[in-house]
Design brief:
With 407 residues, this protein is an alpha/beta fold. The protein has two domains: 174 residues, Rossmann fold; 203 residues, 3-Layer(aba) Sandwich (Rossmann fold). Helix content is 35%, strand content 23%. The chain contains 14 helices and 20 strands. A hairpin with a 5-residue loop joins strand 10 and strand 11. Helix 1 crosses helix 9, helix 5 packs across helix 8 and helix 10 crosses helix 14. The chain is elongated and about 80 Å long. The two termini are 36 Å apart. The relative contact order is 0.09.
Length: 407
């Protein structure tokens, strides 16, 4: 997703600098070309060879290297983003005052790229008025700060901010800074994910195999593109995507109510959940003992959440449905697209190896209202999410163009 992007990762001298190795790897794996600049203190914690091995790029450490005489100006003006992680109290205080007394601070003064800072220090240090003033100055200068978090510090547990946020959180914020600017920026995207559960008794329930992976990947990818994201999820053990507003639900009725509450504000509605289609007609108030032998549970249909939004969606919004089928998937998907008045539908076959539930990959076909079809090969669900949102953005640009021409 970051192919062709250039990132400068500045590392200052704190124990959290070991986490910057993970961040460098994440950025590189995402396709970015990563240049690392170490302060003298940072090199005491993690050596340049480590970062060079992780990024495949020479590591910058000094203003005085003969072959790097102009790197302090050239590099920060050629990259798409500068990240400083960890950003220590000393580094931020110098940067706020425009001091340029080593390679990294000189780069920060010379920069033309956006700046992302991940503060990390002792909690008392973070509360110091001089540090708070530096934070305010840097934010006023346009720097984006992520963290610090509350948690264990090198010297022991703490209940106050000071700990550097995890590398994955910094990475996600970096991706958002690099990928926003498209048709989803500033829009409100609502994503549903996961299964729902319908009680048979207080212990047992009816559900399905959905893990929520596809919906969670879509929510994260939409946030990366600059959207405000609400993720409505049934029971799932997945980690909450960074930046999104999460609402957990249990039953199909719960999910329908949650969707109904946010639907009027939704610019994009992506219905990736797999809500239960049936529920027990009369759930038992007590657990049925096994000793009573076999029994029959009468089932009744649940509400069709997506159909319930038809006719009451926000004007100009985009609605995406999903069709998980086990035969004639394309034709069944086309019928669902028309029946539920969707802008597009994402179709996949539950029986195809490597696709469907409880796996990290998927192969889908996206069909738009005008009949245009996009085939996505078997790939990770994060990659599928990117492909789906590419089509959503194209659709929204087209819709705005048509609306503008009509006006």
């Amino acid at each position: 997703m970051l192919e062709g992007r250039r990132v400068l990762l500045g590392v200052s001298g704190g124990i959290a600098s070991y986490k910057s190795c993970i961040l460098a790897r994440l950025l590189t794996q995402a396709g970015a070309r990563v240049s690392v600049a170490l302060t003298r203190g940072a090199a005491q914690f993690v050596g340049p060879v480590t970062f060079e091995a992780l990024t495949g790029e020479p590591v910058l450490t000094s203003l005085w290297e003969p072959s790097q005489a102009l790197d302090h100006v050239r590099v920060p003006q050629q990259v798409d983003l500068i990240i400083v992680a960890p950003a220590t109290a000393h580094l931020m205080s110098r940067a706020a005052q425009g001091l340029a007394d080593d390679l990294l601070t000189t780069m920060l003064v010379a920069r033309t790229a956006p700046l992302l800072l991940a503060p990390a220090m002792n909690d008392d240090m973070y509360q110091h008025s001089a540090v708070r003033s530096a934070v305010d100055i840097l934010a006023a200068q346009g720097a984006v700060l992520v963290g610090p978090a509350v948690g264990d510090l090198a010297e022991g547990p703490s209940s106050r901010p000071g700990r550097m946020v995890e590398p994955e959180t910094i990475f996600n914020q970096a991706v958002r800074l690099l990928c926003r600017g498209g048709a989803l920026e500033g829009s409100h995207v609502v994503v549903t994910a996961g299964p729902t559960r319908e009680s048979i008794d207080p212990v047992r329930f009816v559900s399905n195999r959905s893990s929520g992976r596809m919906g969670y990947a879509l929510a994260q990818a939409a946030w990366w593109r600059g959207a405000t994201v609400t993720l409505i999820t049934g029971p799932s053990s997945l980690s909450v995507p960074d930046g999104v507003t999460l609402e957990r639900v249990e039953t199909t009725a719960d999910m329908a109510a949650a969707v109904g509450a946010v639907r009027p504000q939704a610019d994009v509605l992506i219905m990736a959940a797999a809500p239960s289609d049936y529920r027990p007609e009369a759930p038992s108030e007590g657990k049925r003992p096994r000793a009573e032998g076999s029994f029959t549970v009468a089932m009744e249909p649940t509400a069709d959440i997506l159909m319930g939004t038809a006719g009451v969606r926000r004007p100009g919004s985009t609605t995406v449905g999903f069709a998980l089928e086990t035969g004639d998937a394309i034709e069944k998907g086309r019928a669902k697209l028309a029946r539920k008045d969707l802008d597009m539908i994402v179709i996949n076959d539950a029986l195809e190896p490597g696709a469907g539930f409880e796996v990290d990959t998927n192969r889908v076909t996206i069909i738009e209202r005008d009949g245009r079809m996009t085939e996505c090969p078997l790939q990770t669900k994060a990659e599928v999410a990117t492909a789906i949102l590419d089509v959503v953005e194209r659709h929204r640009v087209s819709k705005k163009t048509v609306s503008g021409a009509a006006n």
